Amino acid sequence: MIRTGFAAALLAALLFIGLRPVGPLPPLGPLLDPANGAWATARSANLPASQRVVIPQVTKPVEVLFDDRGVPHIFAATEEDAYRALGYVMARDRLFQMELQTMATAGRLTEWLGARALDADRESRAEGLIWGAERKLAVYDRKSLGYRAIAAYADGVNAWISSMRTRDLPIEYRLLNVRPNVWEPIHSFFFLGRMAHTLALNDASLKHLAAQAKVGKAAADAIFPVNSPIQDPVQPNGLSVPRYAFTPIPGPGKPDSDALLALEVRRSTARAFAFGDRSDDGDAVGSNNWAVAPKRSATGHALLAGDPHLDLTLPSVWYEMHIVVPGRLDVAGVGFPGVPGVIIGFNRDVAWTFTNTSSDVNDFYVETVDDESHPSSYRLDGRWRPLEKRVETYRGKSGEVLRTDTVYYTHRGPMSRKMGKWMSMRWTVLEPSREQDNFLRLGYTHSAREWLDAMRDFVGPTQNGLVADRAGNIAIRSTGAYPIRPGDGRGDVIRDGSVSANDWTGMLPIDRYPFAMNPSQGFLASANQQPVDPRDNSAYLGSDWYSPWRAMRINSLLRADSAMTSAKMQRMQTDPGSARADAFVPEFLAAAERVKKAGRSDAALDRAAAILGAWDRRYTKDNHRAVLFELAMDELNASTWDELESDAKPQRESRPTPQAPETQILLSLMRDSTNAWWDDHRTANRETRDDIMAGSLRKALASAERMHGKPDGDGWKWSNVRHANIYHLLRLPAFSRLKLPVQSGPSTLSPSGVRGTQGASWRMVVELGPQVRAWGTYPGGQSGNPSSARYADRLPKWLNGHLDPILFPQKPSELNPKRVISVLTIVPR
Amino acid sequence: MINRLVKFVLLSELFAVTTFGLGWWSVAVVAAVWGVAMARRSRPIAWATVCSTAGWAELLAISAARDPVGEVAFRLGGVMRVPGFALVTITILFAALLAWCGATLGVAAGKLRFAERAESVEQAELSPAQ
Q1: Would you call A733 an interface residue with chain B, using a CB distance cutoff of 8 Å?
Q2: pTM for the predicted model, two decimal places
């Protein structure tokens, strides 16, 4: 009797934990089921050797051959059929990633994660990305290529979702105890909006205002200038070396209380609109691209290389594909899961890639409303205009309402109330535009000129679009909408929203975009530096430019080699050299030497200088000196910009806080050895440049020995210090790949930061000869299934800087059967 | 001996097939039915428990023969903060517990039914002929 009672109780308990989530655990029954549970995900880890599926909307059979890199080669009779097939295979490989991104952008994560995601969801909805996506969708002609593609793509995604068996459900859905939703065409716009958030939503004025509040306007203007003091721009300026435009930097002045108030408003507004700092990891979210004209390539063909730097995630942000519609389209490269088509890639005639321009494309306006608590209209030119309202409802995992918000919109964009003020934001990314059309049209172009035309009306986020063609043309244009503001044209101020005269007056005409085609220097390059030398083009494009270290390194390597090859360009993408180290190491050594000559040296400084002097300034995995240099740079930043710190906590150069000027400003300051900025206000003495630099070296050596042991020990080995950390989208360590040694450092061409979570998300090199040849890889794999061999199979090569040859068959029979691992045939009903 | 082997194989297959077709919960149902049916036989609960583990182990083994089950164990175990082999053990144990509970309840029900039937037969035998 007791045993029976115990069995009944135990069965009840087993059924309970089998059917219901307990704590962080999902229901264990469906998870542990060996036939249909999480174990079954092993079955979908490998692609079936051959498979035939029905997608009702397909008009003619589509053949999809997967090569041994997991890349689908889609052969279809029409573009729509090709995108249906793409939707199907992308969903099969990456469904969870696609939907997670959609839910995050739509502010619906609470439906999966519960109330803990409420803040993130509220930020997403306040940002207006759904509103913007709806505006974009509304302007699409239903017959346009872009719309037909996203609709067909949605057909394909939904065909996979509806045909999924329980055992096909990705493991993440099982862990979250959720099911996939129907895919809508607008979801593709959500992802583009998400990317725009990453690339084009930053507020340069935060740094400037923070500095102004601490040290006054003159000093703030000098350390956060509109123009970079080192000019090596995207649009060549006719010089064969960087132009140094150093100007005297006034010392720190008196705090500006007005700026402090403005800063608080701006900061809270930035938080309301979910602004991030430009990067939490130095310039690891930057990108490189360059192209070489035939006259400077060994083969006499144009060459193009691109490596966009983004968050490194598993699965990767990219999905590689090849789409063939005979007689119309033959394009290969990478696109975003959730979006149809190739974003970066090549066809039989043209290759292209992008870097982020980092221009200033958003503005804030203080609005006057009729009711501070529940506004219904806002004032414009003396009249009340109705506010557009959206009631946002946040639901929990069971569909229960967690909260509702009202989000207001003026004609400019979303409006949010912070610090007692109603602020609206206008942002080019939310404007009605047709980027999807732009991206898809690129695959149809046959020359650089046609490619540039296809990008003419591209709005945002602004991109340095680089193109090369088989005729030997190379071109670059910083493409996108640049708002024209009234007054001084600056975008880093808050404007009065009650007058329409403060609105944007238009967009910069395309002939004023930074642009170059077939320059006499024989190459083009961009790396997020200021795109045009202000001496050549004074238009205000932004003010928050990366230091041009990567651009300088690329340009110096290209200038030095008039017989460039695709192999050299592949090696360049992980080049361990650093223009930043080249600039600062001599400064440290010279300062140490001067201190020594002045008789103020000591054993620690001499030893630190000797160690640093022995460094070849290359961030190779086995070097033992970069550790000292990076710590010295941290100390130098902290000591120099101490006046900007609110609580004197040390700043890390590789993790710039909103207060830290770019290192190019620090280099500029080197010219003035007694500038007041050198004085460490935390000490009684008045320090000079050499004092600070020598002190930074001493402290760096002490820190390095404390943290990493003796200089020649394993602790100082770069591969034991700096890593790539590639997290799964849910940040589950078991699905992540962490502590991966990389040949990279701050501002190398393959930059890495302290956290190691950002970096080169795709590397591609294309040679545009009679037959286009291309190489590429990304950190991850084509499959989103963590137990698949295709989940992270590209990582070893990526870590070593090796690229795979990309297969580019014109028809199925051209693909070597030995390299085909799976054939999918999609037929109409 | 052969009979026992056949019984083992058939019952294990029954657990595997019903799990494949109906889901994890079917283990308890099959075990309960087995318990009812075999209530008067030798060790019905042990049979159900052992055969359920064998059935689930077979499903895992079939999958492991062609798919990366070990990788799933390693990764999913990592998420649940247990070693991969422990996750396999937990899975098998889950089936065993379901089967044990189901069979125990089934045997109890079976014995109860038998007792009731025996009682009614006894009463029928004791009552005077009509």
Answers
A1: yes
A2: 0.93
